[in-house]
Design a protein that fits this description.
The chain has 215 residues and is an all-alpha fold. The protein has a domain at 68-199: Chlorophyll a-b binding protein. It is built from 4 helices and 2 strands. The chain has a two-stranded antiparallel sheet. The protein starts with a helix and ends in a 16-residue tail after the last helix. The model has no long low-confidence stretch (mean pLDDT 85). One of its GO terms (cellular component) is membrane.
């Protein structure tokens, strides 16, 4: 019961601040956000990626100016980062479950895939030429297509049709799921980096982090 009191107190501190905020903006203690017509977020509340229960969520206020051009640019960036993070998250998890590829990563250096540790430990093991190839491919992806405003690439369509459907509703559902999964993956990969950095392992055991002052 005493633990529950602490947990409920933390929740209530967040809740009452939210209620004050809602009351102040809508003019009602049990305010209807539809009444908050002054919000610049109205311009984007029907955009893809607006999902329950939070609706259009922009705690940092990036869209407070209501600028549609800036919103489109940030959405393009969000899509890129989300896609990269989904791949990175799978890159962290898959070798832990399935093992590594056979053969050599660098035959000239005698470096096998099996010699590369998972996670952050791989950074110091991959040869400089390997990092150069990665950087070159990233640059190619960025400059090989016109990404100026109004183009398909500016909307996140780079011609790689993985998520598509002949049914417009189904296609929209998949594209919304892509944004949601990308957001989750951005949080996930940062958590994995943090865990790896503190425990020393990609699939780290927090019991090994004996230096934690939280002990």
């Amino acid at each position: 019961k005493l633990y529950a009191e602490i947990a409920n107190g933390r929740l209530s501190m967040m809740a009452i601040i939210g209620m004050f905020f809602q009351d102040g903006l809508t003019g009602s203690a049990w305010g209807d956000w539809a009444l908050y017509t002054a919000s610049p977020l109205r311009a984007f509340e029907n955009e893809r990626g607006v999902q329950v229960p939070v609706g259009f969520w922009d705690p940092a206020g990036f869209t407070a100016d209501g600028d549609a051009t800036n919103f489109a640019r940030r959405r393009q960036t969000e899509l890129k980062h989300g896609r990269i993070s989904m791949l990175a998250t799978m890159g962290y998890i898959t070798p832990e479950i399935t093992g590594k590829l056979p053969g050599f990563l660098s035959p000239s250096a005698g470096l096998k895939f099996a010699d590369i540790p998972n996670g952050l430990g791989a950074i110091s093991k991959v040869p400089a030429a390997g990092w150069a190839q990665i950087a070159a491919y990233m640059a190619f992806c960025e400059v090989s297509q016109d990404q100026s405003p109004g183009t398909a690439a500016a909307a996140g369509d780079f011609g790689f049709k993985v998520l598509t459907s002949s049914d417009p509703a189904e296609k929209e559902k998949k594209l919304c799921a892509e944004i949601a999964n990308g957001r989750l993956s951005m949080m996930a990969i940062i958590g994995m980096f943090f865990q790896d950095g503190l425990t020393g392992s990609a699939w780290g055991d927090w019991a090994l982090y004996t230096a934690s002052p939280l002990r």
